[in-house]
UniProtKB/TrEMBL annotation:
Source species: Cavia porcellus (Guinea pig)
Sugar phosphate transporter domain boundaries: 20-312
Subcellular compartments: Membrane
GO BP terms: negative regulation of gene expression; positive regulation of Notch signaling pathway; protein O-linked glycosylation via fucose
Lineage: Eukaryota, Metazoa, Chordata, Craniata, Vertebrata
GO CC annotation terms, alphabetical: cis-Golgi network; endoplasmic reticulum-Golgi intermediate compartment; membrane; nucleoplasm
UniProt protein name: Solute carrier family 35 member C2
Amino acid sequence: MGRWVLDLAFVWKAVFTLGLVLLYYCFSIGITFYNKWLTKSFHFPLFMTMLHLAVIFLFSALSRALVQCSSHRARVVLSWTDYLKRVAPTALATALDVGLSNWSFLYITVSLYTMTKSSAVLFILIFSLIFKLEELRAALVLVVLLIAGGLFMFTYKSTQFNVEGFALVLGASFIGGIRWTLTQILLQKAELGLQNPIDTMFHLQPLMFLGLFPLFAVFEGLHLSTSEKIFRFQDTGLLLRVLGSLFLGGILAFGLGFSEFLLVSRTSSLTLSIAGIFKEVCTLLLAAHLLGDQISLVNWLGFALCLSGISLHVALKALHSRGNSGPKPLKSLGSSPDLELLLQTSEQDDEDNEEQYFVTQGQQ
């Protein structure tokens, strides 16, 4: 009887974990293809990103209010000094990462975007070494070389390569390395009380919006104000459809962050990292099948080389967490570069010790 109960519990846990992974896949892969589809007809990716930020802030504020009403405990609200001094650098880096990523969809394919964003792990490791969050080891050098070599092979003689789009997404990956390093430093400051991802999103979005606004004003402001799809609209129905499409993208962005939190809090950051590797493969296969992205054998070998570097990084993180008992923070920032927010949780899994999990996000 006891064995049967254990088997049933194992099956239930496996099914539950699979459900959480699939939920994460739906939001993560969905928002990638959705943004690519939307930018084909709506050529204002910075405005799209800003509206997404507004939607995320709205849902974060609503979630905080619901939690506060149910728990009868006030949520954290930072002082203006801490907000501008400690949150602003992270918010600015995050805004540029997300904004440039969405901007690149105007020029490059989903497959090239997916592969290039995978290189964010490379920059995360570099900045982790600069800020002394990681110690220089031969294994980390090998990870960097594998990812860099894989990125070179994937873009080598690619038939759908675009210099401008590649530069945008590579710049986003570079800024993403700064973004997640600053975010880890931010969340390690326990006195700020931003360990809950909803609180983190709530505080980041307004500064992200303001940080992205100058870039939007310079590159899209005039064109948007004279476009018939927004300010000079003549068809109210078309305007509502455009705004509805943008709002739906914001819901997907919020759902991505929330699904990541659920997956990490109910399993572990390692589960999210491994799921992120398979997600990249699924994204490329779907891009080749649904969008007709052309990927040569050399490109596939480059992607495999990059994935091997990411997998090695995940394996090293798993060994590091197994070799350290007690509630110690993981120094690694995870291997999934296109997640939307950094999460930290101290919930226990059945067989895991209490840990702080730092997981990179967002994909946009």
